[in-house]
Structures are given as structure tokens and as C-alpha cells.
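Researcher: Dear colleague, please comment on this protein.
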Amino acid sequence: MKISLLHPSTFKLDGGAMFGIIPKPLWERKIRPDELNRIPMSLRVVLIETKNKKILIDTGIGDYHGEKFDKQFAVIGKKSPLINALKEADIEADQITDIILTHLHFDHVGGLGHGTQEHKRLFPQARIHVHKKHYEYAKNPTKRDAGSFQTKFFLPLMEQYEKENKIHFLDSDKGEILSDEGEKIEFLTSFGHTPHMIHPVFENYIYMADLVPMSHHVNIPWVMGYDLEPGTTTVYKEKFYNYVQDKDLTMIFEHDMDVWGGKLAVDDKGRFILQQPQESKKLVVERI
């Protein structure tokens, strides 16, 4: 496998919401907020190239939301950010064969299309991989998290893929997403942030998505206020950490600007810590 980390754009979210019940004097030692209490965040996408496939994990936030949205979330990126990032990796959109969507929040599925009324797909040749139960939930979420699901954008696109039989619905808590001549991408499913969020496992890596969005969230109680069930998140973090250590995996963080990933260790107080943080080189395309 050839693995690249794409960094198409950045945005900001409220620091208090990103750290839930953790007091600001603690979390701001790790990451400084701006004057509006927002913290900078990556929209890190993974590109995996095998002999016959070119695979994306998540698609970022897109570029179609409008001035008000971009100002509120401090979105920074070129026009067609994911397409431009792929071009820097010498990949054209039509070459993408598969897209794995960890979940359908707007900052993970936003790069799937143009966001116009025509609902034009950016990757019409690709096959979509998503958890079926999460997809069903995303079409009818609770009022608490409805703002995270922009159904008017992603649903028409997904329906086009479904009509063309180009959606692979995952329906278990773990298993295989796809394979290519012996090179496999498997997955685990977590709960807490949102139902049935999937985490691709490939080579010696695992994509943590919003279970552990940044290196600052490695400590188990450090959980986002955005999570539907924060207590459940802590349970799954511990389950995942045991799996990560058993398989000697390197975690990849989707939203950390400065650290793209690392391995786990346990300190002398029995807490999980990041043993080998891998610093981001701040490149649009970073080979790992």
C-alpha cells in the first residue's frame, strides 16, 4: 500500500465544545483558542493506493457552504480543496475507485460533491462504503445533532450512488471493507460520538475519526461535548486502545493540526498516553 495524508483545508470549532467537561484552564495548555474561543483543526483525509484501487477515507468539508458558514467556522482552503489536494498527489478525481465514509457529519462528507442544486458528484466512478445503520440514522437524527448532518447536500448524492448500485453497506460491528490482491482494509465500529461510526484499519494504521479527533483527546476522559453519549465514548476509547496496543497500530488523527498520529503507551499512573507522536509537516500531501 501507498499511504498519503491529504490536508485540503482547515476549520475551527469552539474549544469548550471540543473538550466537553474538561475545564478551559486545562485544555488551553495544550491548544490555544482564538478570541472567539475557537481552536484550529485539520480536515485530514487519507489516500490509499493499492495495485488496482485508489481509496479515500473521508472527504473533508467542501467549499460550497457560503460566506456566513465559512466565517463562523473559519474555513480556510482553496476552491475545490480535495480535488486540488489530490492533484498534488498526482491523482485525478475520476481515478478514485472507493470512498470510505467514517460517518456523515458535514466535515467528513462535505467533499463528496459540489454542493450545487444539481447535486453533482465529484467522484462519480467511486464506490461508497458506509455503515448501513449509521446511514439510516443520519437521515433522521435527533434534534440535538441534526445540525451536524446536512442531508440536503449528502442525501441526493448518496441516492445517486445507491441507484447505480455503488454503495457497499457495512452491517456489522467489525469486518472487512475491501481488499485488493491480498491488501485488506478492515474496520471497527464505535458508539458515543454518533451511532455506528466506522474506523478503517489498514497496514499498521487505524483512522480514529471522531472517537479521538486530536492527540489532545488521547486521555480517556477527554471527550467532546459534541458526542451524543460521552460516557459511551470513554468505554469505546478503552476498547479501541486495547486493540491498538495488541495489534501495535499507529493511530491517525483526523483533526489535529500539529500531530498526524502516534502509538500508545501507559504511564506510571496507568493512563494512556501518546508514546510516539508523529508531527505533521504541514504539507498538503504527506506520505507516510
